[in-house]
Amino acid sequence: MQNSVINSNLSLNVLTELSRSLFLKMTLVQVLVGIFLYVNCLMIFTFLNKAVFREDTRYILFAQTLFVDSALMVLTDMLLIVNLYQYRIHMIPCIILCTIATIFTNCTPLTLVAMCLERYVAICMPLRHADISTSRNRCFGFLFIWGLSSIAPFFTLLAYLFVVPPAALFTYALCSAELMMGEEWQAQTRAIILQILFLFMIIIIVFTYIKIMIAARAASSENKKSTNKSLRTVILHAFQLFLCIVNFLTPYIEMPFWKVDFLVFHNVRFSNFIVFVIAPRCLSPLIYGLRDEKFFLLLKHNALCGLTAFYKHKIKEQTNFVL
């Protein structure tokens, strides 16, 4: 009898500790997501507020990254909360949400590659940059990015609908993208598609880095600063791409801990979410929002609600923008 009481108290203490730990971690994640979304929304407003940004390919790609990352952050945060609190949802909205989230996940690294190519054209082919960066070519580029981003998700969706019994679509489950890969061949085919896609992206990033590095060595002292800055931008994009690639491996990292210790599994999942979901998407605002002088001045002006006359004068002086 006494042993039963002791075991019951221990179980209660473990559950209490787990609930407290879960609450603290969820609070931390929501604060980080809130800050991320606030900064992104401010940057999207800054982009939309000036026509000069809306006509520049570099800033248009940056704005797409902000939009995609913000939407992905909302979806993944929502799914994280639902799963951690063991709330089951209907399978049809679940597979729709997972498909959209996977498309957004693929779109971010592909947009990073497009940004690297844009820097390559601007640095290595400056005379042709205006002819290449036309609105028509931008439309084709965006269609290409979204088309490639959709290959693996739509394959996973169609394969799932092909093998799953119709009755399973009307059940409730803990929503996860892994639910759509019940057969081993589905997971293997999806992995092959992603490996080919990321190999393609890595080759392009390495190519642009080498070309810009060669241009940096041959550049005059006047152009060397701009070229070196573009080189650092490509390096940062390569680091972002690495974190995005690792994000696809996190389910394989987490599952062994599920069988060992439930609390350790949650700790690993939270760590992966912060390091491989939040962190790489915080780099885009850093690379273009804070390192780009024109954008940063307008961003600071908007963040201060246009109250400082000093920044108005500074922006007009350096960018010729009318506020």
UniProtKB/TrEMBL annotation:
Q: Which CDD domains match?
A: 7tm_classA_rhodopsin-like (cd00637)
- What keywords are assigned to this protein? Membrane, Transmembrane, Transmembrane helix
Residues annotated as signal peptide = none
From which domain of life does this come?
Eukaryota
In terms of PROSITE patterns, this protein maps to:
G_PROTEIN_RECEP_F1_2
According to its record, what are the GO cellular component terms? membrane
What are the G-protein coupled receptors family 1 profile domain coordinates in residue numbering?
A: 39-288
Keyword Heme in record: no
Membrane-spanning parts: 28-48, 60-84, 90-118, 139-172, 192-214, 234-253, 273-290
Alphabetically, the GO molecular function entries are:
G protein-coupled receptor activity; odorant binding; olfactory receptor activity
Cite the InterPro entries for this sequence.
Answer: GPCR1_Superfamily_Member, GPCR_Rhodpsn, GPCR_Rhodpsn_7TM
Query: Where does the UniProt annotation locate this protein?
Result: Membrane
A Pfam family annotated for this chain is 7tm_1
Which PANTHER family does the record cross-reference, listed alphabetically?
G_PROTEIN_RECEP_F1_2 DOMAIN-CONTAINING PROTEIN (PTHR26451), GROWTH HORMONE SECRETAGOGUE RECEPTOR TYPE 1-LIKE-RELATED (PTHR26451:SF886)
Q: What is this protein called?
A: G-protein coupled receptors family 1 profile domain-containing protein
This protein's species is: Pygocentrus nattereri
